[in-house]
Write a structure and sequence with these properties.
alpha+beta, 7-stranded mixed β-sheet, 7-stranded antiparallel β-sheet
């Protein structure tokens, strides 16, 4: 079977590439439905992009690599596509855009775009042997127990990373890269909860609080959530992509107020109240109870000197914690690392050493922040690859 382009992976990037790569496209996936990660994302409503998307919202060994794709197919381009299909959407905090109804609307839109382009989709299809002979790729596919040998001029790898293995993630992209001598930046889980080996936060499970969490010189101001195993919530997921195992993080539990000034004023008017009670007016009561012994929060507010209040406020604004590790790929939303961008063209996503071989989406060493950035990278990287493939035929 001879075709122009074979795309491995019918997720966000794969379907977007199939819709833009011109005629003669076959896209395959081992899953029983296309776009499964899209379907479950954003609580079922798909945080499909972010209005503030910019290169600085991405982690990559080459910080300039993503600029070309992100500037040529922007968040506004995707928003226009979504709106053209009549899909209602809304903005949440920090520029995050979600479907009003269902993530399935985004999948249906991409399927419609693929149909318009004439792309064929094979589901429940396993990828076997891959060879590069002359200027074509020979790939063995197995579907319904039958093998098909496909000869393609272009091979697009959109199989994602290792995150959420229960969804079928396998790291196939890295195996293909190794076969063709393409370098890989060591993958690791990203946007993932952090765990503590002593279960110290088990009594606080379910408690959330505004915070600023930092690792090194990077920090995020978002909510923190205590869990049975450790810490989660947007601030922790964000910082997990910058945190290295063995390192410390610092948690500021009072990022939005001058707690010292608040306590000094309260001491004048309500000094007879217990210090812990006054603190519980500004932080979750269970958290104050938990920290009571560590910070020695006994006595009334009027009993506390300025020096003592400052010490308490300093402790709450710079709480040092050393996680034992992350929860791994099981709960990671993305995979950090991946195909080394030094081996790819930033304009086309094509391998410099293997003409016709493309890597797009999460498989590549470009990882976005939480909040729709990773979907935008999928759309942008897939679009430039698709445009490059279509232009070859021209």
């Amino acid at each position: 079977m001879q075709i122009n382009t074979l795309i491995l992976g019918a997720g966000a990037a794969g379907m977007m590439a199939a819709a833009n790569a011109g005629p003669g496209v076959l896209i395959v996936d081992h899953a029983k439905a296309a776009g499964e990660k899209i379907r479950i994302s954003g609580g079922g409503r798909c945080n499909f992009t972010n209005m503030g998307t910019a290169p600085e919202n991405f982690i990559c060994q080459n910080p300039h690599f993503a600029k070309s794709a992100l500037s040529r197919y922007t968040q506004w381009d995707f928003i226009t596509l979504v709106s053209d299909y009549g899909i209602a959407w809304h903005e949440k905090t920090l520029g995050q855009l979600f479907c009003d109804v269902s993530a399935k609307d985004i999948i249906a839109m991409l399927r419609a775009e693929m149909d318009k382009a004439g792309a064929r989709l094979w589901l429940k299809t396993e990828v076997g042997d891959i060879r590069h002979e002359g200027n074509r790729f020979q790939v063995t596919l197995t579907r319904d127990g039958e093998q098909t040998e496909v000869s393609a001029r272009n091979l697009v790898v959109a199989t994602g990373g290792k995150s959420i293995p229960k969804m079928g993630s396998t790291g196939l992209a890295y195996q293909i890269a190794a076969q063709f001598g393409v370098r890989v930046v060591t993958p690791r889980p990203g946007l993932v909860p952090l765990r503590f080996s002593d279960d110290r936060f088990k009594p606080l499970a379910g408690v959330a609080a505004p915070s600023r969490v930092t690792a090194g010189d990077v920090g995020f101001d978002e909510a923190l959530l205590f869990t049975h195993r450790g810490l989660s919530g947007p601030a922790i997921l964000q910082i997990s992509s910058y945190w290295q195992e063995g390192e410390q993080i610092t948690v500021n539990l009072t990022p939005n107020c001058d707690l010292f000034e608040i306590l000094k004023e309260a001491r004048q008017s309500t000094g007879r109240k217990a210090l812990s009670s006054v603190l519980s007016m500004h932080l979750p009561a269970r958290l104050i109870d938990f920290l009571g012994d560590e910070l020695n929060l006994e006595g009334n507010l009027s009993d506390q000197s300025d020096v003592r209040l400052q010490c308490i406020c300093d402790a709450l604004s710079a709480w040092p914690l050393r996680p034992a590790g992350s929860e791994g790929y099981r709960t990671a939303e993305v995979t950090l690392g991946g195909i080394d961008t030094d081996d790819l063209s930033s304009k086309t996503m094509e391998c410099k050493s293997v003409p016709g071989l493309y890597f797009i989406g999460e498989a590549v060493d470009v990882t976005g922040w939480l909040g729709g950035y990773n979907f935008q990278w999928a759309w942008s990287s897939a679009w430039v690859a698709g445009q490059a493939i279509a232009a070859k035929r021209g």
